[in-house]
């Protein structure tokens, strides 16, 4: 009862922002509900003079519900399908992830970008956009403003990719009789699922390929999503080591360990086993939708906690970092595909 009394106002405010953002994102998937929720949250917060009544609920939404979203995301992963059809793209995925993380690390030092923002942009660019940022933020204890800035950068390059990649693929000579090459390209070089879907669907429509490109791109994208697991565990270990060194006292890995990632793995295993036993994959569709809605809900809370003026003033370097990661991933994806004879 005390929990409800403490959190209800903030949760209700976040829901009031998340619901219209969700439907807007459904109507305009290239923009998406998550970005819409952040923007609306940043606008709404300008009109709230006293946040004390909503503070607890907003904090709960931005932290705990974000973790629940990642856990539920696992129900959308059939590991058998990923392992069967995603192996071909694995060398490209590994190379693109390594490229993005290296670029983010180097430019963070050169451009003096806050380490948490560079980590979020690097991980978001290389793995799966908003979902990867959602999983990584609690592990590195990123602030809501850092999450909002990273999501905004990823969104900008998502839109660019969805708009220009189909024409770019035609220009450089991707096979137009099969969706394989462009599907792998979209699945490895585009950040977020919504834009992967948009780019792949456009290619299918351009060349009358049904859903061949989309099926390939989504499978590759889901394979990338699994990289959330090792990345978050490594970041948790690094944070433990850093915290122990700074404080002069030993910090337990167990204290920082992202246990929600274990639940994410468990959810993936449940889906995999259930489908292999004959359960229709569509059974898990509502849970996947709930995961996406929870991300939108959490982003509304993050928007409420974000200073839009500060975000604009400090946005130059993160955008430059995002651009470098995006160009690096695109180039490496094409090079490795060419080496492997896919393109």
Q: Determine the structural class based on helices, strands and strand pairing.
A: mainly alpha
Largest sheet, strands/sense/barrel: none
Low-confidence stretches: none
**Strand share of the residues?**
under 5%
Describe the protein.
The protein is mostly helical and 343 residues long. The chain is 80% helix and 0% strand. The protein is built from 17 helices and no strands. Helix 1 (2-27) packs across helix 2 (33-45) and helix 1 packs across helix 15 (285-304). It is globular, with a radius of gyration of 20 Å. It starts with a helix and ends with a helix. The mean pLDDT is 87.
Topology, element by element:
Blueprint: H1 2-27, H2 33-45, H3 52-73, H4 79-85, H5 90-111, H6 115-126, H7 130-140, H8 144-172, H9 180-189, H10 193-207, H11 212-225, H12 228-247, H13 253-256, H14 259-276, H15 285-304, H16 308-313, H17 316-340
List keywords for this structure.
343 residues, mainly alpha, globular
Quick recap:
The chain has 343 residues and is an all-alpha fold. It is built from 17 helices and no strands.
């Amino acid at each position: 009862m005390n929990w409800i009394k403490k959190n209800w106002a903030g949760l209700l405010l976040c829901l009031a922002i998340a619901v219209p953002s969700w439907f807007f994102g459904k109507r305009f998937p290239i923009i998406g509900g998550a970005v819409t929720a952040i923007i609306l949250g940043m606008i709404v917060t300008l009109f709230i003079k006293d946040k004390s009544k909503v503070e607890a609920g907003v904090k709960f939404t931005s932290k705990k519900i974000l973790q629940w979203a990642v856990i539920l995301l696992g129900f959308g992963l059939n590991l058998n399908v990923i392992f069967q059809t995603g192996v071909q793209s694995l060398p490209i995925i590994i190379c693109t992830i390594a490229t993005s993380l290296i670029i983010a690390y180097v430019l963070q030092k050169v451009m003096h970008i806050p380490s948490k923002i560079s980590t979020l942009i690097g991980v978001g660019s290389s793995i799966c956009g908003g979902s990867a940022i959602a999983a990584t933020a609690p592990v590195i204890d990123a602030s809501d403003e850092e999450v909002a800035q990273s999501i905004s950068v990823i969104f900008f390059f998502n839109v660019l990719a969805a708009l220009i990649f189909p024409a770019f693929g035609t220009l450089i000579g991707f096979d137009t009789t099969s969706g394989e090459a462009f599907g792998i390209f979209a699945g490895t070089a585009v950040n977020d699922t919504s834009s992967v879907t948009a780019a792949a669907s456009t290619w299918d429509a351009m060349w009358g390929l049904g859903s061949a490109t989309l099926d390939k791109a989504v499978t590759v994208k889901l394979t990338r999503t699994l990289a959330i697991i090792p990345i978050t565990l490594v970041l948790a270990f690094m944070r433990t080591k850093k915290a122990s060194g700074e404080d002069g006292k030993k910090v337990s890995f167990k204290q920082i360990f992202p246990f929600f990632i274990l639940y994410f793995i468990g959810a993936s295993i449940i889906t995999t086993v259930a489908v292999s036993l004959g359960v229709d994959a569509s059974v898990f569709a509502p849970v996947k939708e709930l995961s996406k809605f929870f991300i939108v809900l959490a982003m509304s809370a993050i928007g409420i906690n974000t200073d839009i003026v500060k975000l604009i003033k400090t946005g130059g370097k993160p955008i430059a970092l995002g651009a470098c990661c995006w160009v690096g991933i695109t180039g490496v994806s094409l090079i490795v595909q060419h080496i492997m004879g896919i393109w």
